[in-house]
Structures are given as structure tokens and as C-alpha cells.
């Protein structure tokens, strides 16, 4: 297994940043042709998801719906004032897994990998690990 880290800088409180190209680049850079890629975000106020990337309106809709479901201001007890970001991260999740075959991520035609920022702007770390297929 190998792992690496990329950094993603976000420019607003909430954002969905397509990181597919960066993740694919790390897979190709390592030269592993078969296995399982794990993308993990080690933050409590940012997550990662796979969704449609052909139409940017899809992720806009996802982020708008999350903002509606979990408003920034609410009856939260967390003193730091960013409870909404923590809740959204719990809903979206902190990792995704993608099969790798012939050195390529096996995403569907329209699928892309998105870092979901919920408490930005910030610079986020994204961990990428590849577990090679056993012979």
C-alpha cells in the first residue's frame, strides 16, 4: 500500500471542489495498475463524495440543499460556532473508495470526486491511498 497527500484551497464557506484530476494524477504517478483507491479527508468540517461532474448545477444543488437542511445558525451548543459544518460532514462522510483497473479510476461516465468544504475558506488536506490487488 502507498499513500500520499494533496492540498486543496477553498475560496468560500461552502464549496464543492472537483479533485478527480488530482487523485487520478497520483494513481498514474505511482504506476499501480490494479487495486482500491481510498480518498480520505482528515477534517471534521469538510467531507468527500462522488457525484455527477458533467453539470456543475448538480453539486450546486447538493450544497444548497445541505445549507437548507442544516442552516449555519441554529440552536447549536458547540461554542466554536461551526456546528452546521460538523453536521454536514457527518452527512456527507470523510472517505470514498474507487476501484482502479489498468491504472485508471473506475468512475462512471458522469462521476467525479468532490471535496466538500463546509467551513471555509481554508486549505484542506486530502489523503489518497492505493491498496494494490493481490496477485
UniProtKB/TrEMBL annotation:
Gene3D superfamilies for this protein: YjbQ-like
PANTHER family: UNCHARACTERIZED PROTEIN YJBQ-RELATED, UPF0047 PROTEIN C4A8.02C
Official protein name in the record: Secondary thiamine-phosphate synthase enzyme
Family: Belongs to the UPF0047 family.
InterPro entries: UPF0047_YjbQ-like, YjbQ-like_sf
PROSITE patterns the UniProt entry points to: UPF0047 (PS01314)
